[in-house]
Write a structure and sequence with these properties.
about 280 residues; alpha/beta; Aldehyde Oxidoreductase, domain 3; TIM Barrel; six-stranded parallel β-sheet; 11 helices; 12 strands; elongated
């Protein structure tokens, strides 16, 4: 796992610690002797794709830096009910106090990876990429996008600074797609890609004249997408976006677009059920 991702997780851990532990775990600290050690395992309680084990390790080691951590199934792997994901041994208080923080990270990220993997299965046989969006939980963008990759999908732009995305409000204030693109090009390096959101075939044609890198087909029907793909004819990359449910993406993939962006990958996460069990 990249150091930027772990650094992001550490910032979030500090917030989680403050809200969950406060002045101390009054249950564990009054029941468990301070020097007692135990062994625990993390177990999958649902089928899915695992993501976030390095973050879980980081969490537990914040409470006991000497924890012995042994991953059984690495991030990005398919897991099934009953699979042991990791086994670890350390201070019993650390295992109990760290449990919910570690599971909150692990379950969310594994839920994202699992849904991304399901979407990837829907497009098998088509030359199209599944992309995430900026619809991430605030503060979690590094982690959420990491989980998307663990599920086999790809990352769209990370933020507002690394790629131009001209949307309907930008087009309106600029007076049109051509005007917006020309204004942007005066201020950015040629290496930065420009994408334009389009809702009509007329806008697709205007974006083509502006010679943008990527044309987004926003909330178009499959029929309109196929027409747009024919008109663009590989002169720009094509992204389909808007209402991309898992039931719809196979039909969209068949239109010939290059990318399908799915906000639900990260904004509608169903956590993967994972539990911690003390075994010794």
């Amino acid at each position: 796992m990249d150091s930027k991702i772990l650094k992001s997780a550490e910032v979030l851990f500090d917030l989680a610690y403050a809200e969950d532990i406060g002045d101390g775990d009054i249950t564990t600290n009054n029941l468990i002797p301070p020097e007692q050690n135990k062994t625990a395992i993390l177990v999958a309680k649902a089928d899915g794709v695992i993501a976030g084990l390095p973050v879980a390790e980081m969490v537990f080691k914040k409470f006991d830096k000497n924890i012995e951590w042994n991953v059984k199934i690495p991030d990005g792997s398919k897991v099934y009910v009953g699979d042991v994901l990791a086994e670890f041994k350390g201070n019993y208080r650390a295992l109990l106090t760290g449990e919910r923080k570690a599971l909150n990270f692990l379950q969310r990220l594994s839920g994202i990876a699992t849904y991304a993997n399901k979407c990837m299965k829907e497009i098998e046989g088509h030359k199209v990429e599944i992309l995430d969006t900026r619809k991430t939980l605030p503060g979690y963008r590094y982690l959420d996008k990491y989980a998307v990759r663990m599920g086999g999908a790809s990352n769209h732009r990370f933020g507002l600074y690394d790629m131009v995305m001209i949307k309907d409000n930008h087009i309106q204030v600029s007076g049109g797609i051509m005007q917006a693109v020309e204004a942007i090009r005066k201020h950015i390096p040629k290496s930065i890609k420009i994408e334009v959101e389009t809702k009509t075939i007329e806008q697709v044609q205007e974006a083509l004249k502006a010679q943008v890198d990527i044309i987004m087909l926003d909330n178009m029907s499959a029929k309109m997408m196929r027409e747009a793909v024919e008109i663009i004819n590989k002169r720009a990359k094509i992204e389909a976006s808007g209402n991309m449910t898992i039931k719809r993406i196979r039909k969209v993939a068949a239109t010939g677009v290059d990318y399908i962006s799915i906000g639900a990958l990260t904004h509608s996460v169903k956590a993967l059920d994972i539990s911690q069990q003390i075994i010794d």
